[in-house]
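#struct-help
A.M.: can someone run this one for me? Single chain, 315 residues.
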Amino acid sequence: MASEKLVFTNKPITCVGLGEILWDLLPAGPRLGGAPANFTFHAKQMGLDSMAVSCVGNDEWGEKALKILQEQQVKTLVFRSDKNTGYVQASLNDRGVPTYEFALDTAYDHIPLNDEIIAVAKKTQVCCFGTLAQRQVNGESHKTILAFLEAMPEKSLKVFDINLRENFFNRDVITAGLNRCTAFKCNDDELPVVCKLLDTPEMTPVEFYEKVLHSIFGIEQFIYTAGERGSDIFYYGEHSFVPTPKVDVVDTVGAGDSFTATFVGLTVQGVDFKVAHKTAADVAAYVCTQNGAMPVLSAELLERVQSLVAAAAAS
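D.P.: on it. Structure tokens below:
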């Protein structure tokens, strides 16, 4: 992996959220989601030229998903399948933290590998992917995601946000992702699971960054979130910790995706990583005060983002 910081001077920067588009069936009603789709939406709010790449069903829910993304002016390369559009039954605890029950063998498990998707990959500078859409061993989406990553330009940012759900992951999928990514994201629940799958002892975030991500895989960026306790980012050998802002939580669905998209979206435009980290924490906190994973940011936050990007471009 290259040790040069990945900052892109071209505008707009091409960005893809690759994987599941699904419906979160929340107590407050259905909301469009899926971690890569959430990432795409929030990366667009950071000013990136964002596209969601996925597959939905030839059904009413698929039509609604595409309509919402179109209304939000999010670009899509979304294929259609005879399988049902993905969905997940989400229930919230008293702190607004969700637990999930996923439908099996849905459209997002069948993202096709074709010339059109590879053509997009060759022009993509930033991509976020996870494990959920790769849950079928040797499945269609698994093969497509790996091929997409391989086809991306040499100087590109590949963000592996693992999003471990139920039992939809294994050592091979995680190792394949680590071997291909240039940035890794997980939370405090996921890190011990990853350590176990990699046959390493449980580690603190800094130990995992130094002994595994950096030393073994050559990964320079590690985004680690710990809910109410705060977040750590390790960035080309430097470290930043930001406490989680205190807000009245409605639900936490999509907060982590907005955090990742904000940090990545700002740093690839040259914003200082500690400033980007603080902004990411504030964006995620705002998302927690809203229903669903894709709220439009407040005017104050959008103005702040635009000012940071403009200042970075001028420096």
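A.M.: thanks! The longest helix spans residues 273-288.
D.P.: also worth noting: The mean pLDDT is 94.
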